[in-house]
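$ run holo --ligand "fructose -6-phosphate" --emit tokens
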Amino acid sequence: MCGIVGAVAQREVSAILLEGLRRLEYRGYDSAGMSVISPQSGLASRKAVGKVSALASALEASPLPGTTGIAHTRWATHGQPSERNAHPHLSGDIALVHNGIIENHAALRERLEGLGYRFASETDTETIVHLIHHYYQQQRDLLGAVKHAVTDLEGAYGLAVINAEQPDRLVCARKGSPLVIGIGIGENFIASDHLALRQVTDRFAYLEEGDIAEVAPGHFRVWNADDEPVVRDVNQIDTAAESADKGQYRHFMLKEIYEQPSVIRRSLAGRLGSRKVLTEALGAKAGEILKNIENVQIVACGTSYHAGMVAKYWIEGFAGVPCRVEVASEFRYRKFKVQQNTLLVTISQSGETADTLAALRLAQTLDYAATLAICNVNQSSLVRESDLFLMTEAGPEIGVASTKAFTTQLVALILLTVAIGRYHDLDEAEEEAIVKSLHALPDLITETLSLDDDIKKMSNAFAEKHHALFLGRGVQWPVAMEGALKLKEISYIHAESYPAGELKHGPLALVDSDMPVIAVAPNDELLEKLKSNLQEVQARGGQLFVFADKAAGFEESPGLDIIAVPHVDEIIAPLIYTIPLQLLSYHVAILKGTDVDQPRNLAKSVTVE
Ligand code: F6R
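-- output --
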């Protein structure tokens, strides 16, 4: 989704801003722009539709000299992708970039037009810059004007503003959309994600909800939502933990699929004893809170929601605790009753997903016993605002399609299942068996990754298809859902998933020789039932592709392709069966020639609802 970078330095900043935008490209966007203040010629901007490379060409043709600047990648919400809608937006000598959505933009536009402002774009953002300009005319102070303007805004924003009349500073503000200050020596930066600034600094101060900051080359000052001066902690980022390049791989997605054994090892490190899960890893307060939990409510979006769906089977099946799961965009707008002693669990790779954050904030106004975030980003809003957190330790996930974040979320959810189950139905022997399975997991994933060549061959059967159906039963149904989501988002093939038992209640009508049907079939108690469902498909000429346990007794026949998956324990089967589905969607996308790491219309971090 949209990205912001800003710099106030004593050297030229346009190359720094451009590199920052490149580092944010993975988040998804459809246009880019930059404004820089030059002491000689004042404020100037360049914009381009499409990739950051198009903006780079525009800058090469017509450079932007200057030591203070802001830049942006825009993911269109109000108004189509175009140069005039791209940020920065201008009002007189003031330029502004914005992430988020201003909900009262129509009323503000009317008011500003009444004051004589003429709008150059269709965006909600342009109202903010005119509003700031309006207040600036009254007080000639950019900081004061921004502080005044944000009180008129309804909605979400992370914003950064520069003013040619005060060229030595930048003002930024956050509410509902993250911003971080990158601290240099004699220069400072801001960005919507610290990754954008890793080329210039490893020291960061994260702004909190409602903060406004004034950033100058030698210092920065922050005021909180009550306009009190505050000091935000400076964090030093561990360079070794962050490697955001593709290495030997053609795409980030493939790299991230192959990283799964090592990141799962990392996410288990320090959390597993030889026979027990070390629940202290959930934080000092965890034991005290979890022992009273009688219900679990999981809220998440997309792939993270699928992780929650898997966890429901574990939390009810192993821990014996009732568990509900809901997509955040529904949960936050629905009336419901909170069961007694319910733990609210949010799951999010980014920790900045607008709907998931809103769900957490809603829950904090209700009668939940506690909130727990399962998240991949340390300083994210979700982590900072939850009572407990369990980091997934997947490292930066750059491919828009989530892979290693999903499997590490599943690992965290197994740990949570044990931590809660201990106070309910899970006995010591069962815990010991789960711990044993978890110790074996990284190597079993490596073994499963060795199926890659066979899966690549299988992918040829999908390249010309327009639809695909994914089937699973029990805990493998959400795995099938995740497989369908991966295929549709990176290959643009329409894919649906069903619990296999539902086939004959409708979707069977879709099955013919043009409809590949993919099934995940571990050797579990539902195997025989799944086999009957698959026979229904074969009998109707459907082409079946089954990822089956070696011992499941499937045999290849015309219309039935089998890939044998290692035999694994029940609890880790969802992680193992996810791997071939990730590889399948990757290879199909390669054959279709799509943009694997940045699929069209999608964003890595969905910070607007
Ligand atoms: C799909 C995908 C999305 C995200 C969803 C939630 O591959 O990545 O469906 O899972 O946008 O994002 P997070 O987990 O950051 O809250």
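-- notes --
The first strand starts at residue 3 and ends at 8.
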